[in-house]
């Protein structure tokens, strides 16, 4: 990185740029929106924003399937 000012003032504001410069091997692209993010585990495939909506959608589908098999 070229200077201390850039490293301590500019990079923290641009989170993905900082991650690309310092943690290039830990970056992944979100399967839903395509943004770059740092996964919390090696299984992470969605950014935190999309992960919540994907989880909610999967849970809804699972509950709908479970409720459809129950006899009334």
Automatic annotation (TrEMBL):
Name the UniProt record assigns to this protein: Cysteine-rich VLP domain-containing protein
């Amino acid at each position: 990185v070229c200077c201390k000012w850039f490293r301590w003032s500019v990079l923290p504001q641009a989170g993905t740029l900082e991650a690309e410069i310092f943690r290039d091997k830990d970056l992944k692209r979100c399967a839903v929106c395509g943004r770059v993010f740092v996964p919390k585990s090696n299984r992470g495939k969605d950014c935190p924003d999309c992960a919540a909506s994907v989880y909610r959608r999967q849970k809804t589908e699972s509950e709908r399937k479970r409720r459809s098999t129950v006899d009334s």
